[in-house]
Design brief:
The complex is a heterodimer of chains A (about 210) and B (about 525). Chain A is built from seven helices and no strands. Chain A is an all-alpha fold and about 210 residues long. Chain A has two domains: about 110 residues; about 60 residues, no CATH class. In chain A, about 45% of the residues are buried. Chain B is mainly alpha-helical and about 525 residues long. In chain B, about 75% of the residues lie in helices and about 0% in strands. In chain B, strand 3 and strand 4 form a beta hairpin. Chain B starts with a helix and ends with a helix. The chains are: A mainly alpha (about 210), B mainly alpha (about 525). At the A-B interface, helix 3, helix 4, helix 5, helix 6 and helix 7 of A face helix 9, helix 10, helix 19, helix 20 and helix 21 of B.
């Protein structure tokens, strides 16, 4: 969203703006991916239509054909529209209502359809009413925090509590702009010991502490 | 009345006299009082840390109650809950950053008071207000428990379904921002709750053949992602903060007679408002504190004092959020319906200990029910005792820079989530919800209705299916049964009223302050 700070005004829809180019392309590609998944799964007429529409709207937005005065609502609604579409595809093969009894697939389809209608309404609201621009996304901090959490998940089983905690701490602290090495290393060591004391010594939770060598 | 006293007495008996023998088995220590104290202490400790809310605190500390007996575990969790709230207000007063969503409004006047050198009175009036509210709410919970439980026995599936619809509509109306978007969030939560095995047939739904999803998505994972990780990511985006901690030594903790006189009315009004909003499903402590502050400002003789260190501006919201925090136990304990995300976590904790929340808890496990209620009172008493002397400790905790704090919180959350099921997948799921929560906030979607939808989802679906089966597929059953009809019509009226332009403007006003 490089151009996120300047909102496109209501009438000026017919010109390409960077953030609509990127946002529209993302939406369009996700729509195509959904459509592919729907075509690959049988019995999915409704989600096929919805995902084709999402893809079309996405590419149209990227080309500047759709005015987006309220980008937060517009993109928010479109992305949330994909969730019920995905749910419709995923629950397509579940048996539905039999007689008076709901099948396992009835409620998911019911709620998906309502959610789809309402998220579409949110997106439409973004076309017709003016709203604040999307805040800029900063990449570094959030990305490193997520990497730290994921690497903790990856390390805790094979490597054990001590290395996983220490490394996750060090990775996430890289996300801060004011990181200092010595302080961070001490902090990581202290936190690792604290967690060991609390979870393993005091609470007796069954953690593996160090890497296991076979 | 005698019955009420009897019950409270029974509860206090459970809390005070079930003892463990400590130190070579000689000195009897009241075990549950210890759990209560420990919970309140740990809750305050985490609550003081800025940028981590009540929901994340409880999700994070859930594992430490695993080894305890059920009564003790729940008493401790309840202690953590109001400890976290109290800690939040300490941060609000001392630093201009709310420690919790419930104490956002406390910042306005509390921090101003601190800057005028009156941090002591601000903190103690918050504690006194909370304690008073806690006492009233405890009696209220005890008094309403029995009648509501007997009401619950009249409820069939159709009534339960309508009640939950009403609860979700309350959550929508009380959430900030657009009503439409809040409904979208509720539905998203409902849909997410359907991932996993179907309750009746066992068919895997929307699991994409991932084995870990067969049991559904754990609520603690969602809560940690949306309220813990997302919040941290968001804080990292902000420019390096300049925290202005009140540097002066805090002297004179006790409020003057004038302070007490000024805030007495505000405390009573805040308590009343908070108790009411807490019982409503979808309400809870956050909205109560906002409402109490707005109300005080509106009825004040000189509204311009607010925002410049008016003691009523601290007393009212603090009493209200504590009252609401406690009365929100009422729907959970009597009807088995969690009215907000915190109570949803309590459901999780109860399930881990093999307790099914609902009307049968009171009859089958009276010691648990009344013990928990009495522990609320004991817990509040402890908060007032431990917090004021420990203010110095909390201040030094606040001096730890955020760059060291946030990795610690992340690591702690990771271990907490992992230890619930010993499952790395749970950690990955909460990371995903962290990203989702971050994205939602960027697009002005509120995560709170989503969590409520997620929690009520399975209950709602189950009751809907049962009601339809009993009524032989006739949808009109929801309007022909009187209780159900009243509940649904109330929900519809609420929704219509919230959508009216005049009320909408009023709503926006309340949240802007």
């Amino acid at each position: 969203m490089s151009d996120g700070a300047t909102p496109s005004r209501g009438g000026a829809g017919f010109q390409i703006r960077t953030h609509n180019l990127i946002g529209g392309l993302v939406i369009g590609l996700l729509g195509v991916a959904l459509l592919g998944y729907a075509l690959y799964t049988p019995n999915t007429t409704v989600p096929r239509i919805i995902s084709a529409l999402i893809a079309l709207i996405g590419f149209a937005t990227a080309m500047g054909l759709v005015p987006v005065p309220g980008p937060r609502d517009f993109y928010g609604g479109l992305v949330l529209l994909m969730l019920p579409t995905l749910a419709l595809i995923a629950s397509a093969e579940l048996p539905g209502q039999r007689g008076f009894a709901f099948g396992p697939g009835t409620a998911p389809r019911l709620f998906s359809l309502v959610l789809a209608a309402l998220s579409a309404a949110v997106a439409v609201g973004g076309v017709f009413t003016e709203g604040p621009p999307i805040e800029k996304y900063k990449i570094r901090g959030p990305l490193l925090v997520i990497i730290a959490i994921l690497s903790f998940a990856a390390m805790i089983r094979p490597l054990g509590l001590f290395p996983a905690t220490f490394l996750a701490f060090m990775i996430s602290i890289l996300g801060s702009t004011e990181m200092r090495w010595v302080e961070s290393l001490i902090g990581a060591a202290a936190m690792t010991i604290f967690c060991w004391l609390l979870f393993v010594v005091l609470l007796n939770l069954p953690f593996q502490l160090w890497p296991r060598f076979y | 009345m005698t019955e009420l006293l009897n019950h409270l007495g029974q509860g206090l008996g459970v809390v005070l006299f079930q003892s463990v023998y400590w130190l070579f088995g000689i000195i009897p220590l009241p075990m549950n009082v210890l759990f209560c104290l420990l919970g309140a202490l740990v809750g305050t400790l985490v609550g003081v840390l800025p940028g981590i809310g009540t929901v994340a605190t409880i999700a994070m500390l859930l594992p430490i109650t695993f080894g305890l007996p059920p009564v003790g575990a729940l008493i401790m969790l309840a202690g953590i809950y109001y400890g976290a709230q109290y800690g939040g207000s300490t941060t609000s007063v001392l630093v201009n950053i709310p420690g919790e969503a419930t104490s956002v409004v406390t910042c306005l006047d509390g921090h101003q008071m601190a800057r005028q050198g009156r941090a002591g009175p601000a903190l103690s009036i918050a504690a006194i207000g909370s304690f008073f509210a806690g006492c009233v709410a405890t009696v209220l919970v005890a008094a309403l428990g029995a009648p509501l439980t007997s009401l619950a026995l009249l409820f069939g599936p159709a009534e339960y379904f309508s009640l939950m619809v009403l609860g979700l509509i309350f959550a929508v109306v009380l959430a900030k921002g657009s009503v439409l978007k809040a409904i979208v969030m509720v539905l998203t939560g409902l849909l997410l709750s359907m991932v996993g095995s179907d309750l009746e047939t066992g068919a895997g739904r929307m699991t994409f053949d991932i084995a870990e999803l067969a049991d559904g998505i754990g609520f603690a994972n969602i809560a940690m992602g949306l309220f813990g990780f997302a919040e941290i990511i968001r804080n990292l985006e902000l420019p390096a903060e300049s925290r202005d901690i009140v540097q002066a030594k805090i002297t004179g903790l006790m409020p003057t007679r004038k302070d007490l006189m000024d805030s007495a009315g505000a405390i009573v009004r805040g308590t009343g408002l908070g108790s009411l909003l807490g019982i409503l499903p979808g309400g809870g402590a956050v909205i109560a504190s906002f409402a109490a502050y707005t109300f005080e400002k509106r009825i004040a003789k000189d509204p311009s004092r607010f925002g410049r260190g008016a003691i009523e501006g601290v007393a009212a919201p603090e009493s209200a959020n504590n009252a609401a925090a406690q009365t929100s136990f009422i729907p959970l304990l009597t009807l088995g319906i969690p009215p907000n995300a915190v109570m949803a976590l309590m459901v999780g904790a109860m399930t881990i200990h093999g307790i099914v929340p609902g009307p049968q808890v009171m009859t089958k496990q009276p010691e648990l029910f009344w013990g928990m209620i009495s522990s609320m009172w004991v817990g509040n008493l402890m908060l007032i005792v431990i917090n004021l002397p420990l203010v110095g400790v909390w201040v030094s905790l606040l001096r730890v820079p955020y760059r060291l704090l946030f990795p610690s919180i992340i690591v702690f959350c990771c271990i907490g989530i992992y230890s619930i099921n010993n499952s790395p997948t749970d950690v990955v799921i909460s990371a995903i919800f962290g990203v989702i929560g971050f994205w939602l906030v960027k697009h002005d979607f509120e995560p709170a209705p989503l969590t409520l939808g997620f929690v009520l989802g399975p209950l709602m679906e189950e009751n809907l299916r049962r009601a339809m089966l009993i009524a032989r597929g006739d949808v009109s059953v929801f309007f022909t049964r009187p209780i159900s009809a009243v509940l649904l019509i109330t929900a519809i009226i609420l929704l219509v009223v919230a959508a009216l332009p005049k009320i909408r403007r009023r709503r926006d006003e309340v949240f802007v302050e």
